[in-house]
């Protein structure tokens, strides 16, 4: 049986804290790092192996673009497979997003995709191809989006459920992304959550957003991972834990990264919510 | 499929240098994606090319990287692959043409960046080589360490590099002294700069390219009449350039 992440709070570990964590080995439930930063070897890989020996490790990809109408990049998949062969990761995740077209032109970002039946066929084939190449199931994360395909015939929750049914992948539920989409695009949070197969949800993400205003008077919440988790997102997280039960939960922070203890304090808040639920359920 | 066309159009709208309003995509959303795209690539260039940035100053480097990003789309989902053509771009860029060594500094930084992340390989043990009868050595070919790279530059790259490191800052640089380099990775995973004697760049280059020891030696001699095979071979063994002996094909 494949190991899974512990159902407690963890932190996204980023460059400013690598050395501190290796030297001090603070108590962290688990850690998540970006896969692409550890292709192909050298000091980065050696450090990741040290971290994996101490903490349950989740590897989070940002570069496969499995939501593209084009197939995933075979070179990228091969590099990820070599990484997984070299490091004992207990979870591997990617986003429900696209980043390239068939001409191998890339935008190194997480771009939204059409949620249609035709697209589901394509993306399910991409996810299956990736899982075959990697020899293990992926957790696929819901996206923060700033625009939507005009011809959608389902919502993102239904699309994710379709992927789970067809490929056996799991779901990484990003609560901040869901909240940002509700605010930006009017996503129906209840309908989204109702569509998800509860057993497939293997991990939860929490992060902070930034509000941005534009010349035409419009505003967007941008998923910057640059702030503490907002109260409204904590509230939604409580509802999600009450609904689905405890899940491994990650604090993500990628820009203006604060001291490690700030991340640990955010993780402690998530842990308290998980503990509350466990206490209430007992 | 309409979905394919939509993704294609969105990629166009994000990556095209000149902003063009597109009725299919809300202006605010497109502004966020366009900004993410540019900032992400420019930050990667700043990470890979710190020495070029120091040489040019923050403001000029930022302007230069903005121009590079306009001219150079990303070709990989792995951001660490972005910026390979920066040296060539700098060489052809009017406003940096007067800094002759800048393209080679960029080549050095790209090789250091790729070498740092390159796959691991065990260095060839000298005993392995010694166990083979010496008269067969000439026909040997080697698998080399993926982090190794030769820069046969006409500029004093090692001195320029040292001049801008915190521990050796301000050391003298004689711009008229060529310093061909072997870049290699030590056991701590740190990239190192080793100055090469005449003939050695050609010799190392040939070995990295898969030539036999005889052919590499001939390349060294062709480049420098006093090329010394023994010291060159010792140098590549000591710096872990050779990783394994290739089976004869």
Description:
The longest helix of chain A is centred in the C-terminal third of the chain and has 22 residues. In chain A, 41% of the residues lie in helices and 18% in strands. Chain A has 282 residues and is of the alpha/beta class. Chain A contains 9 helices and 12 strands. Chain B is mainly alpha-helical. Chain B folds into 2 domains: 117 residues, no CATH class; 129 residues, Outer Surface Protein A, domain 3. Chain B has 11 helices and 5 strands. In chain B, strand 3 and strand 4 form a beta hairpin. Chain B is globular and about 75 Å long. The mean pLDDT of chain B is 95.
Output the keywords.
heterodimer, A: 282 residues, alpha/beta, TIM Barrel, 8-stranded parallel barrel, two-stranded antiparallel ribbon, B: 249 residues, mainly alpha, Outer Surface Protein A, domain 3, 2 domains, 3-stranded antiparallel beta sheet, 11 helices, 8% strand, globular
Report the CATH architecture of chain A.
Alpha-Beta Barrel
Number of domains of chain B: 2
Helix content of chain B: 40-55%
Helix content of chain A: 40-55%
Number of helices of chain A: 9
Distance between the termini of chain A: 27 Å
List the helices and strands and how they pair.
The complex is a heterodimer of chains A (282) and B (249).
Chain A: E1 9-12, H1 18-24, E2 31-34, H2 42-54, E3 57-60, H3 74-86, E4 91-95, E5 98-100, E6 106-111, H4 117-134, E7 139-141, H5 156-167, E8 170-174, H6 175-185, H7 189-195, E9 201-206, E10 210-213, E11 219-222, H8 231-244, E12 249-251, H9 260-281
Parallel strand pairs in A: 1-2, 1-12, 2-3, 3-4, 4-7, 7-8, 8-9, 9-12
Antiparallel strand pairs in A: 5-6, 10-11
Chain B: H1 2-15, H2 27-48, H3 50-56, H4 58-71, H5 86-92, H6 102-117, H7 126-130, E1 142-144, E2 149-151, H8 157-163, E3 181-185, E4 191-195, H9 200-208, H10 213-223, H11 229-238, E5 242-245
Antiparallel strand pairs in B: 1-5, 2-3, 3-4
Helix pairs in contact in B: 2-4, 3-4, 3-6, 5-6, 9-10
